[in-house]
Amino acid sequence: MLAIRLDKELEEQIDLMAKLKGCTRSALVREAVVRYLEDNEDLELARQALAETRGSRSLKELRRDLGLDG
Questions:
Q1: What pTM was estimated for this model as a whole?
Q2: Does any domain span residue 70?
Q3: CA–CA separation, 10 vs 14, rounded Å?
């Protein structure tokens, strides 16, 4: 279990959003935390993929290396 302190304005916004979505305050905050964690995981995976492609070659170089240029 986790307890957090929020300012009144943020708490009111959460209550309004929960009411509009027809869910509880806890469910709304849980969903927001899960999305935040997933977004950060996706960002880290994208950074790793970018780092792995730093040594990439141009299409012209790739075609030459594969013997596709006549």
A1: 0.67
A2: no
A3: 6
